[in-house]
Automatic annotation (TrEMBL):
Residues 22-203 form the EngB-type G domain. Necessary for normal cell division and for the maintenance of normal septation. The lineage of its organism: Bacteria, Pseudomonadati, Pseudomonadota, Alphaproteobacteria, Sphingomonadales. The gene is engB. This is Probable GTP-binding protein EngB. It comes from Parasphingorhabdus cellanae. Coiled coil: none annotated.
């Protein structure tokens, strides 16, 4: 599936611009700069598919990608790359707009099969992450926690953070109990992520 056609579909700055719900979706959520867009590029094996940047706040709209051929109808599934949450340097109005967009999409999207919540291996779960996990629990959206940038920490540090994140995840009913540890840079954990994605869309 990941070696077949994959293409950018559209950007939705507001909910009214979402694609028609004609295919199952998965979403990548997480704090600004956690590595969502980079991980989508690693997952799909296409550099530059999702736009990445060193400056937090790069992705400002919901960006949809079609996985599979679309010449005869809907794709096999879609990936949604989300704006980051918890970006303190953006103007408060913009932060609020993103929060509504993210929350409304995650809570109300019928075709959303699973959300991958990305957590930076250097930082672990922060308050803003906690709030999102609680919101997903309340909305009964199933999600899976993915650690990113594993190449940036020493093995001992990674193990300690993993334990903490697993303990935190246990308190969240909608969280999958197993973590996926990734590095887009080193292409670590990408096969495990692909399996988890295919499982989520039931292929
Ligand atoms: P926003 O769209 O701003 O919310 O950010 P994002 O979560 O999409 O992050 P993005 O993928 O743009 O990556 C942010 C920065 O982290 C970029 O400079 C990436 O090169 C870097 N980065 C992403 N993944 C990794 C990784 O696995 N390892 C390392 N070392 N750097 C990474
Ligand atoms: Mg991004």
């Amino acid at each position: 599936i990941f070696s077949g056609p994959i293409s950018f579909l559209k950007s939705a700055p507001q909910l009214q611009f979402l694609p028609d719900p004609t295919a199952p979706e998965i979403a990548f959520a997480g704090r600004s700069n956690v590595g969502k867009s980079s991980l989508i590029n690693a997952l799909t094996g296409r550099n530059g598919l999702a736009r990445t940047s060193n400056t937090p706040g790069r992705t400002q709209e919901l960006n949809f990608f079609d996985i599979g051929d679309t010449s005869n109808g809907p794709p096999i599934f879609r990936i949604c790359d989300m704006p980051g949450y918890g970006f303190a340097k953006a103007p408060p109005k913009v932060v609020q707009k993103w929060r509504y967009l993210i929350n409304d999409y995650l809570r109300g999207r019928q075709v959303l099969k699973r959300t991958f919540v990305l957590i930076d291996s250097r930082h672990g779960i922060k308050n803003t992450d906690e709030n999102v996990l609680e919101m997903l629990d309340k909305a009964a959206v199933s999600y899976r926690i993915v650690m990113t940038k594993a190449d940036k920490v020493k093995t001992t540090e990674l193990e300690a953070t993993k334990e903490k994140v697993i303990a935190a995840a246990k308190k969240h009913p909608a969280a999958h109990p197993e973590l996926i540890i990734t590095s887009s840079e080193k292409k670590q954990g990408i096969d495990a992520l692909r399996m988890a994605v295919l499982e989520a869309v039931q292929i």
